[in-house]
Amino acid sequence: MPMKFRKLVFVLVVASVLIVTISAASQQHSTEKYSAAEDDHKDTDADDAITMDSSGHRSLLQKKRSRRVTCKKFPMICHAKGSPGPACCKKKCVNVLKDRQNCGKCGKKCKYNEVCCKGRCVNPSFNTKHCGGCNNRCGNGEFCVFGLCNYA
């Protein structure tokens, strides 16, 4: 009888070790899945909490993450009504004809004293076609000085 009891205890110990190992492996696998998915959703906000369950094991509770739709994955959203512009630059919809950070093409920045007019960086203080602002043309023979036509 004692030999059968030892075998039973041995089988129970091996079974419990096997269950713990499988559980740990599945948690590690789900953590790897989560970290891979996290790269896709870095711009979302969520708080995670570590709790203890009734058996004394720690578990990670996660709130649902909201997914932001970006134009990088769905470029047609830039053509939707109310969108800032039809071009997609760095996951944002922009109008390359007006945006100072993406003037004419993605990543082309205007200097601090320039504005973006029709996709070109211009200085509105001295440009006769864009005097004081975009499309504000001075008359024939007039000069643009400090953003005013015929200042002087």
From TrEMBL:
Signal peptide: 1-24
InterPro entries according to UniProt: Stig-like
Domain of life (superkingdom): Eukaryota
Pfam families reported in the protein's UniProt record: Stig1 (PF04885)
Keywords: Signal
PANTHER family: STIGMA-SPECIFIC STIG1-LIKE PROTEIN 1, STIGMA-SPECIFIC STIG1-LIKE PROTEIN 3
Protein family according to the UniProt entry: Belongs to the STIG1 family.
Protein name (database record): Stigma-specific STIG1-like protein 1
Organism: Hibiscus sabdariffa
